[in-house]
Design brief:
Number of domains: 2
Helix content: 40-55%
Largest sheet: 7 strands, mixed
Radius of gyration: 21 Å
CATH class of the largest domain: Alpha Beta
CATH superfamily of the largest domain: Type I PLP-dependent aspartate aminotransferase-like (Major domain)
Strand content: 5-15%
Structural class: alpha/beta
Distance between the termini: 34 Å
CATH architecture of the largest domain: 3-Layer(aba) Sandwich
Number of strands: 12
Length: 389
């Protein structure tokens, strides 16, 4: 049975060029880049060239990129480092729609006495209410260390108006971080030209390796290091650099930049739309979460009302279709997604919501087969429910 992999927001297949770059790093460029001897300095040169290649993808200077272990660490550094670097500001602002790397960190900070200002979002759309944000900034800008809003949502693909949010933050003198983990490598980015101060991302979302990512820091932004233990990354993140991961990420960045110059996004977005229509037209009590808002080309979160996502996913997996019920970090939970509930999605729909996410490797044939399998699975589950009733 051929596997149809539609869980690319969880992770993507490492490209062959990425694996080759990592193997070379492990077999040839294995010295410590902080060592002063020739092998170490040769590795340092490869690492800095890799930094330049990643910066070309996101649109920034090489001095403004900190290598991290991934999107979670980048978000934690952006928020925790901002609080520690600005001791006169004891509040942060974010949304209930964030990835757990931000949402759960905010909840933990709240328990420790940091005030968390939860930004209002329009019901159903999953978009920040700009009027409420402006009112908050007008009243309390001087108390807020950082505002963090996800660029594109990992569960629904909903795209926030990042430039408008950033412009408001800049107008009121408040630092702005965006979690770009689902954006970088899938959509064009020129972060240095945008009103953003901090952007975190991960390589494994654009066919790079796991365990490596980056944090863009606008020039002049000060952060307190959260990983302590050395002067690496200009004393912004201690620890010996993950050279194989970084060189793999650079190879993935090259490939992503080349792909973004093609019409691939438009082609795959049309495929996603066709996949959704095939299901909606033939399946009752079904809707697309976030359909009224701008969405990433690759993400489809479909609500099958009155069913359980876990049952759907198990039957899909038996038939070779890989999908998820939301963030991979939440797999195994029987509770509906907190992101969908925060959007105002009714619980019967949230319980039965399944995320399908494409990559640039997804083919039309795979999506056609997947749609047929999804319809078979839903018909079987609804038939079983009818029989029980």
């Amino acid at each position: 049975m051929d596997t149809i992999y539609l869980d690319n927001n969880a992770t993507t297949r490492p490209a062959d060029e990425v694996v080759e770059a990592m193997v070379r790093a492990l077999t040839e460029h294995w010295a410590n880049p902080s060592s002063v001897h020739r092998p170490g300095q040769a590795v340092r040169q490869h690492l800095e060239l890799a930094r330049e290649r990643v910066c070309l993808l996101i649109g920034c200077r090489d001095r403004d990129l900190v290598f991290t272990s991934g999107g979670t660490e980048g978000a934690n550094l952006a928020i925790g480092g901002s609080l520690e670097a600005q001791p006169t500001r004891n509040a942060i602002a974010t949304t209930r729609l964030e990835h757990s790397a931000v949402r759960e960190l905010a909840e933990r900070l709240e328990r420790k006495g940091i005030e968390v200002l939860w930004l209002a979002c329009a019901p159903g759309s999953g978009l920040v209410e700009m009027g409420a944000l402006e009112d908050l900034l007008t009243a309390r800008a001087g108390e807020i260390a950082v505002i963090s809003v996800q660029w594109a949502n990992n569960e629904t693909g909903v795209i926030q108006p990042i430039e408008a949010i950033g412009a408001l933050c800049r107008e009121h003198g408040v630092r702005f971080h965006t979690d770009g983990t689902q954006w970088i490598g899938k959509m064009p980015a020129d972060v240095s030209a945008m009103p953003v101060d901090l952007v975190s991302f991960a390589a494994h979302k654009f066919h790079g390796p796991k365990g490596v990512g980056g944090l863009y820091m606008r020039r002049g932004v000060k952060l307190a290091a959260q990983v302590i233990g050395g002067p690496q990354e200009r004393e912004r993140r201690g620890g010996t650099e993950n050279v194989p991961g970084i060189l793999g990420m650079a190879a993935a960045a090259d490939l992503a930049a080349a792909w973004l110059a093609t019409e691939g996004r438009e082609r795959l977005g049309a495929m996603r739309d066709s996949f959704e229509r095939a299901i909606l037209e033939r399946c009752e009590e079904t809707s697309i979460n976030g359909a009224a808002s701008p969405r990433l080309w690759n993400t489809s979160n479909i609500a099958f009302s009155r069913l359980e996502a876990e049952a759907i996913l198990l039957l899909l997996s038996e038939r070779g279709v890989c999908a998820s019920a939301g963030a991979a970090c939440s797999s195994g939970s029987l509770d509906p997604s907190p992101v969908l509930l925060a959007m105002g999605i009714p619980e019967p729909a949230a319980h039965g919501s399944v995320r399908f996410s494409l990559s640039r490797e997804t083919t039309p044939g795979e999506l056609h087969r997947a749609a047929d399998i999804v319809l078979e699975v839903i018909a079987r589950l609804r038939g079983s429910m009818a029989a029980v009733r």
